[in-house]
């Protein structure tokens, strides 16, 4: 008996490919492939988010800051500014600087004082960081010498810089 091995293998393969068993295997493998593909997309999405944050801010994340802790404090600072007296403006500026120090602590910046912590912040890491570095000098001067001559416009501009950075960090609305 001469049997053609190729035709025998071919007929066995064609009957296998047309069987119900292979049909179910195809369905299960399609579902598994879809689930794995979605999983890969989700993992890449998480990775890209982290990479963007690192490239934009120099840190993998901003800390989760509870607005409920900082919004009332910021509102109290704003109320002092609305009194439109230079003395209350100076107090508001010093309190805003303390709030900034707390935010820098939450971000994990180390240093003995706010100036050292600000020096640890890279230029693109926080919105308005360069302005706040300058404003911090004013706050320091007021803290060291309460009789320091500061103009109303200078204080208002300084608090606007603090507000910008607090909004960028998500501490206030």
Structure description:
This protein has helices spanning about 5-15, 20-55, 65-80, 85-105, 115-120, 130-145, 150-170. The radius of gyration is 31 Å and the shape is rod-shaped. It is an all-alpha fold and about 170 residues long. The chain folds into 2 domains: about 5-55; about 65-170, no CATH class. Helices cover about 75% and strands about 0% of the residues. The model has no long low-confidence stretch (mean pLDDT about 80). It is built from 7 helices and no strands. The longest helix is centred in the first third of the chain and has 38 residues, at about 20-55.
Question: Any key phrases for this structure?
Answer:
173 residues, mainly alpha, 7 helices, rod-shaped
Rg, rounded, reads 31 Å
- Helix-strand pattern: HHHHHHH
Low-confidence region ranges: none
State the secondary-structure class: mainly alpha
- What would the principal axes of the Cα set say about the shape? rod-shaped
Total strand segments:
0
Mean pLDDT: 82
Question: What's the quick description here?
Answer:
This protein has 173 residues and is mostly helical.
Task: Describe the secondary structure blueprint for this structure.
Blueprint: H1 5-17, H2 20-57, H3 67-82, H4 86-106, H5 114-119, H6 129-144, H7 152-169
